[in-house]
Design goal:
The chain is of the alpha+beta class. The chain has 2 domains: about 70 residues, Thrombin, subunit H (Beta Barrel), CATH 2.40.10; about 100 residues, CarD-like, C-terminal domain (Methane Monooxygenase Hydroxylase, Chain G, domain 1), CATH 1.20.58. It has 7 helices and 5 strands, in the order H-E-E-E-E-H-E-H-H-H-H-H.
C-alpha cells in the first residue's frame, strides 16, 4: 500500500505530462474507483486540443510511458536533430518508412519526433510530398510543437513557427 501512496506523488493535478500515443496533456486530478472489491487510483489526463480525457491507473503510469515534459536540454537536442542532415532512406519502401515514422511519433520522444520532421522536410527544389508524407509530417510537427510550447511556456503557434524556422535553416 505504501508503494501505491508513493506513486501518487509522481504527478499532481495541474502538471503537464506526455502520454506517448497522444502527446502533451494536463493532469486534471487523481480519482479512486472501486472495481470488484479493489480500489484503483487513476490519473485523469486531459488533452484539450483533441477534446479527450484519458484515465491511466497510477500503478501502471510508468509502464504506459506517461512522463513529465522533456527537459530544456532534451528539447535543445531535438532542435539540433532537426537541423542535422537528413538520414532518409529512400531505398526503403515508403510503407515501411511510414511505419517507422509513426512508431517514432508515438514513442513520445522529442528527438525521435525531430528525426521524422528532419527526414520528411522537403526543400523547394524537391518534388511535392505525397498526401501520407504531409500527414505524417504534420502529425510530427504538431506533437513536437505542443511539447515545445509547454516546456517554453509559449503558445503552440509560436512553437510551430520556431520548428519551421529551424527546418528552413537546413534547406
Amino acid at each position: 500500500m505504501m508503494a501505491a501512496m508513493a506513486q501518487k506523488l509522481d504527478f499532481a493535478a495541474g502538471d503537464y505530462v506526455v502520454y506517448p500515443a497522444h502527446g502533451v496533456g494536463r493532469i486534471e486530478g487523481i480519482e479512486t474507483l472501486k472495481i470488484s472489491e479493489q480500489q484503483i487510483s487513476l490519473y485523469t489526463v486531459c488533452f484539450e486540443k483533441d477534446r479527450m480525457r484519458l484515465k491511466v491507473p497510477v500503478d501502471k503510469a510508468h509502464n504506459s510511458g506517461l512522463r513529465r515534459l522533456s527537459s530544456k536540454e532534451r528539447i535543445k537536442a531535438a532542435m539540433e536533430t532537426i537541423q542535422a542532415k537528413s538520414k532518409s532512406r529512400r531505398s526503403v519502401m515508403w510503407s515501411r518508412r511510414a511505419q517507422e515514422y509513426e512508431m517514432k511519433i508515438n514513442s513520445g520522444d522529442p528527438v525521435s519526433i525531430a528525426e521524422v520532421l528532419r527526414d520528411l522536410k522537403r526543400s523547394p527544389e524537391q518534388s511535392e510530398q505525397s498526401y501520407s508524407e504531409r500527414q505524417i509530417f504534420q502529425s510530427a510537427l504538431e506533437r513536437l510543437a505542443r511539447e515545445l510550447a509547454a516546456v517554453e511556456k509559449i503558445d503552440e503557434a509560436k512553437a510551430a513557427s520556431q520548428l519551421e524556422a529551424a527546418l528552413s535553416a537546413t534547406a
